[in-house]
Amino acid sequence: MAAKVSRFFNLKVFSLLAVLLTFFAVKMVAQEEPKPEHSNEHATEQTAEHPATVGHESGKFNAGEMILGHIADEHDWHIVGPVTLPLPIILYSEEKGLDIFMSSKFEPHHGEERSYNGYEMHKGKIALASGTSIHDFSITKNVASLFITAGLLLFVFLTIAKSYKTRQGKAPKGLQSWLEPIILFVRDDIAKPTIGHKYQRFMPLLLTIFFFIFFGNLLGLIPIFPGGANLTGNIAIPFFLASVILITIIVIANKHYWGHIIAMPGVPKLVLLILTPIELLGFVLRPFVLMIRLFANISAGHIIALAFYSLIFIFGAKSAVAGYGVSIVSVLFTVFMFCLDLLVAFLQAFVFTLLSSIYFGSAIEEPAHH
Question: Is residue 32 part of a domain?
Fold first, then answer.
């Protein structure tokens, strides 16, 4: 048993490295609209020093802008208060070639436009002042969060794999005792019942998907507080995972599976003219339903928690007494949503892995012989 789980760990590492290489090659650009710039000098300097103050335009609190400011991607990483961690800006254009510098170069001064060395940043988008098109390969907050998640996975599971080798025949200890039940749960309650006797072929991919989403969801809960990143709430991450599932199904599917998709046995040819396009559409949409489910649930949890948090400032703008009174209820609801999101973090990883396993099982299912 220990040898099998150790083999799963090693295969998981190689699968994770392949995913990372693909992620690094693909340009990661957040689809959410970034934080708006402010028209007055005080608001601009305040936003530059403390991104958590987004939504205070002309001295008024804007909950929508504050929430989007927390869940959107950025070219720097706000930690807490005035502390902001600059991230690498990597740009390429025919005019300037490859240009690498830190995002701190774009910091505004006295209300001036965010610009540096001929580059201008407007609402999180970088462009050349001359209008020449550029390719942005910058390490944004979500990309940095991706590397942190991947590094955490490698550290945890390489440590556990080493523990299996050095403690053969002994009871699990430390991280090994915490995560072994989850690994066995993925194997015995997800892979085996849905895929069958060929489940071992898919264990590395299923374990990688499960723990990547699970760890990403847990780290993604930090946006409720200052200094976090919204990794799995970025549509690019669920889209990539859904694409991996779709490509895997195309590669592993047997003739029996394609036969039921393209020309279902026993169905009249005239009916196939209607049924076949529907089946093909359903084949493509199934993995992307997983994308929407993961993206919507994670983003909604963050938005709801931040909305309760915003009530403090909304009522506080009316009167100090109302702000203090609402803060008690608001904090309680925020804590409740945070605890609920802890459960959702596991459930979304479980649902994504379970449905992926079901799709794999149906793609390799052999026809019944009587």
Answer: no
The secondary structure of residue 95, as a DSSP letter, is T
Is residue 351 in some structural domain? yes
Phi-psi region of 228 (alpha: psi -120 to 50; beta: other; left: phi over 0): beta
Q: Tell me which residue has tokens 């050095």.
A: 166
Is 358 in the same domain as 223?
A: yes
Which tokens hold the place of 339? 């605890």
- How confident is the model over 190-226, as pLDDT tens digits? 999 999 888 999 999 999 999 999 998 888 776 544 4
DSSP β-bridge partners for residue 151 = none
> Looking at the structure, do residues 115 and 230 belong to the same domain, yes or no?
no
Residues 53 and 194 in one domain: no
How confident is the model over 23-78, as pLDDT tens digits?
Answer: 333 333 333 333 344 434 443 444 444 444 444 444 566 767 767 767 778 888 87
**Cβ neighbours, 10 Å, residue 269:** 8
Phi and psi angles of residue 139, each rounded to the nearest 5 degrees, phi first:
-85, 95
Strands 76-80 and 56-57: unpaired
Could you give the CA distance from residue 232 to residue 300 in angstroms, rounded to a whole number? 12
**Nearest alpha carbon to residue 247 among 214, 284, 277, 294:** 284
* Structure-block tokens of residue 350: 């479980």
Calculate the alpha carbon distances from 302 to 6, 148, 158 in Å.
36, 20, 31
140, 161, 191: which is the final residue of a domain? 140
Number of domains forming the structure of the chain: 2
Least confident range of 13-27, 67-81, 226-240: 13-27
281 vs 283: CA distance, rounded Å: 5
| Phi, psi for residue 130 in degrees, rounded to 5 | -75, -15
DSSP three-state, residue 105: helix
Give the whole-angstrom CA distance, residue 47 versus residue 41.
10
The residues pairing with 84 across neighbouring beta strands, listed in sequence order, are 78
